[in-house]
Amino acid sequence: MLRIERIRTEILHLTQVEMAEITGVRQATVSRWESGELVPTTQNWAAIRDAVKELPKNPRTPKWSDAWVLETTVPNEAVA
């Protein structure tokens, strides 16, 4: 599972459509990120980060960590 998919499904608990809405892209683009066909841009990651910071406080949604993007894997402690 690619990092973007793990962040979307296991950390943020979003659908591809919801991820597309918060990043300003189409669902097909999110699908291509997850298949490895495309890579999210810096602006896409910023939109994801900003949206996560604005999500209602939920015990299942951890505080955003730039390490999710910068490290090669998502730390297990980030997965709720």
CATH class: Mainly Alpha
User: Might you state the CATH topology name?
Assistant: 434 Repressor (Amino-terminal Domain)
List the secondary-structure elements in sequence, H or E.
HHHHH
Morphology call: globular
Helix percent reads 40-55%
Secondary-structure arrangement, i.e. CATH architecture: Orthogonal Bundle
Mean pLDDT equals 80
Spans of at least 5 consecutive residues whose pLDDT stays below 50 are none
Structural class: mainly alpha
Q: Tell me the number of structural domains.
A: 1
Annotation, overall tally of beta strands: 0
Give the radius of gyration: 11 Å
Summarize the biggest pleated sheet: none
Could you please describe the fold and organization of this structure?
The chain has helices spanning 3-11, 16-23, 27-35, 42-54, 67-70. It has 80 residues and is mainly α. The protein has a single domain (3-70), classed as 434 Repressor (Amino-terminal Domain). Helix 2 (16-23) packs across helix 3 (27-35). The chain is globular. The two termini are 17 Å apart.
